[in-house]
């Protein structure tokens, strides 16, 4: 009984404080109406100077040509609704981002949860967890339980916050849809009833999340003091019952709405801050620590070998690295590039024909052909314009031609030629012929084959080997050995000639192969620049990953449409409103991610047909049947370029 009486006393005191603050603001606004400059100051709290980002439009009637143009930017009803929607969407995004992180950790294995508790919460948690392991004899059961409780507590609080905000968003969206006709016709006249509705929705929101401070358990893992309860301002009953409000009463009510928004933002930011995911530097503190230690060791080592410590090692290494880089670039980039420029005669002639077709001027092509053939300038009696062309081509194209062929001219010098092989072959033939005639004692024709003569030499060689020492001094053994050496020389030169021909035929291929390191390095740099330019990590980007994320947003919308209808069929009104709010949040993210791409392709708003913007607005309407919405999502995936798969686009 005493607790109940204390609660009633606190409620009465809060109501008295609200009434006093309301009438004090009312009197102050009455006084400030006498000063014209103060009106601008009173409205400054509502008119923020920052630019609003694009978000899901209000569910206004689509019968008019453009309802958003009728409710102008000066309309206070439009401003307060936009501000509320923007704040709710922003808070939902913050909650959803942290909730997804904790849900991913909850789906991990027990070992993964223990690793998170020890190595992904900072050095302090690592030391505490290690000390706890030592105290308990390296028992992992306590760490398993504490990690599960740590994650589940944060999931429970963030899920409750998301549920309440999504329900508030859905209720506000449905109320705006109900009074949409009045807002379009006379927004100022319907502002009073809209403010009363917003006040009631804030009261429901306060009742749903104001008890989160009482959910903290005695052994909670949340650090620091817990957040205070959410206490929002309320409209006095006297003001709510009035049928016609004065301008000062409307401004006071608007100030109450913005005060409630400010309190709501503070409350949610404090609750989310105590249950948010660790920062990136906290998650990867072990990697950063090892990297810092490694860099420190490298820095000490570099200082020891630098001129600061009187050592010339560092300067010498830099010079050697510079010379090696320049040499590598010269040998593997410049020379292969010049080698690739070596073309045969027919290619050069075809280039001249291509120039004639590209520039539509036969004179230029003729000049190129003449320069290539003999280096002369044609058309001696040409006009001044043609003379300028001839001079330009003569001074540039001829130099380019000489530079293209200079590399191969240098490389072909000193290579094995067919004449050298022919000389060796003729010498061997004469040696075989003389040996055979001396051995057989008969005359052989000049065109006798080397194979027949070589058989005679080998037969004599085998006989001479019967008495090698005697025949080496007085026989034909030494002569036969010299003939075989000459034959071996001919075989080697023939093989070198064939190898040389293969190398010449594939010289461009080898040049390209030598240029591959530079090519791959350029390709890696190009990929890095492309990744930075496309910003492929978010749904707003231009790359393949961003396109996949946009398509996943449509899948998320489809799932929530089906879940919303399931809750409606089961009579679960609160759950259905929550799912509607989450669907609106997904549509807001989709709206923001596709707007820029659809505007670039002309699919955002079309004059003859409905564009992507209107399809997203139709999906947000609570009154449309789910089957129609699913048809719209299916059409969006197949029709709009920014939502197509990357393979279909290619």
TrEMBL record:
Organism superkingdom: Eukaryota
Stored Pfam families: NCA2
Cleavable signal peptide: none
Mitochondrion found in the keyword field: yes
Residue ranges crossing the lipid bilayer per the database entry: 283-303, 510-533
Localization of this protein: Mitochondrion membrane
UniProt keyword annotations, A-Z: Membrane, Mitochondrion, Transmembrane, Transmembrane helix
Protein name: Protein DGS1, mitochondrial
Keyword Protease tagged: no
Topology relative to the membrane: Multi-pass membrane protein
């Amino acid at each position: 009984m005493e607790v109940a009486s204390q609660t009633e006393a606190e409620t009465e005191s809060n109501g008295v404080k609200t009434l006093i603050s309301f009438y004090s603001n009312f009197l102050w606004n009455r006084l400030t109406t006498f000063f014209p400059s103060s009106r601008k100051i009173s409205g400054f709290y509502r008119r923020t100077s920052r630019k609003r980002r694009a978000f899901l439009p209000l569910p206004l009637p689509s019968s008019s040509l453009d309802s958003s143009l009728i409710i102008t930017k000066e309309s206070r009803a439009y401003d307060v609704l936009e501000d509320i929607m923007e704040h709710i969407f922003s808070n939902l995004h913050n909650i959803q981002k942290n909730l997804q992180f904790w849900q991913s950790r909850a789906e991990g294995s027990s070992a993964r949860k223990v690793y998170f508790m020890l190595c992904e919460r900072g050095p302090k948690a690592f030391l505490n967890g290690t000390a706890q392991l030592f105290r308990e004899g390296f028992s992992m059961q306590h760490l398993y339980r504490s990690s599960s409780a740590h994650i589940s507590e944060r999931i429970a609080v963030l899920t409750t916050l998301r549920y309440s905000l999504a329900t508030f968003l859905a209720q506000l969206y449905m109320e705006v849809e109900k009074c949409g006709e009045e807002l379009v016709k006379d927004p100022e006249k319907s502002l009073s009833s809209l403010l009363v509705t917003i006040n009631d929705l804030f009261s429901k929101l306060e009742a749903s999340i104001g008890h989160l401070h009482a959910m903290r358990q005695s052994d909670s893992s949340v650090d620091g003091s817990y957040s205070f309860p959410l206490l929002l301002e309320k409209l006095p009953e006297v003001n709510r019952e009035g049928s016609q409000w004065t301008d000062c009463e409307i401004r006071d009510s608007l100030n109450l709405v913005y005060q409630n928004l400010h309190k709501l933002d503070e409350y949610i930011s404090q609750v989310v801050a105590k249950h948010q995911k660790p920062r990136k530097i906290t998650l990867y503190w072990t990697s950063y620590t090892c990297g810092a230690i490694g860099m420190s060791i490298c820095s000490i080592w570099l200082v020891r070998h630098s001129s600061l410590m009187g050592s010339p090692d560092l300067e010498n290494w830099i010079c050697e690295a510079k010379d090696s880089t320049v040499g590598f670039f010269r040998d593997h980039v410049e020379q292969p590039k010049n080698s690739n420029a070596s073309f045969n005669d027919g290619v050069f002639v075809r280039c001249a024909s291509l120039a004639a077709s590209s520039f539509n001027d036969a004179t230029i092509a003729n000049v190129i052909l003449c320069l290539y053939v003999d280096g002369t300038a044609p058309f001696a009696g040409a006009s001044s314009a043609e003379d300028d062309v001839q001079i330009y081509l003569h001074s540039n194209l001829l130099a380019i031609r000489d530079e293209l062929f200079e590399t191969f001219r240098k490389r072909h010098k000193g290579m094995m030629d067919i004449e050298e092989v022919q000389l060796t072959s003729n010498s061997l033939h004469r040696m075989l012929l003389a040996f055979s005639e001396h051995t057989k004692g008969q005359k052989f024709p000049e065109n006798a084959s080397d194979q027949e003569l070589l058989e005679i030499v080998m037969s004599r060689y085998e006989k001479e080997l019967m008495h090698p020492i005697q025949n080496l001094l007085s026989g034909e053994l030494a002569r036969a050995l010299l003939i075989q050496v000459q034959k071996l020389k001919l075989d080697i030169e023939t093989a070198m000639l064939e190898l040389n021909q293969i190398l010449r035929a594939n010289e461009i291929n080898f040049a390209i192969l030598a240029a591959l390191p530079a090519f791959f390095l350029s390709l890696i740099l190009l990929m890095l620049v492309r990744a930075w330019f496309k910003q492929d990590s978010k749904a707003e980007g231009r790359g393949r990953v961003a396109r996949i994320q946009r398509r996943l947003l449509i899948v998320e919308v489809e799932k929530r449409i089906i879940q919303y209808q399931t809750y409606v069929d089961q009579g679960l009104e609160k759950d259905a409103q929550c799912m509607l709010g989450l669907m609106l949040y997904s549509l807001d993210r989709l709206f923001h991610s596709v707007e820029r791409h659809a505007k670039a392709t002309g699919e955002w708003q079309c004059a003859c047909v409905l564009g992507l913007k209107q399809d997203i607005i139709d999906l947000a309407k609570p009154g449309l049947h789910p089957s129609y919405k699913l048809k719209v999502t299916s059409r969006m995936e197949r029709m709009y370029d920014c939502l197509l798969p990357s393979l279909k686009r290619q």
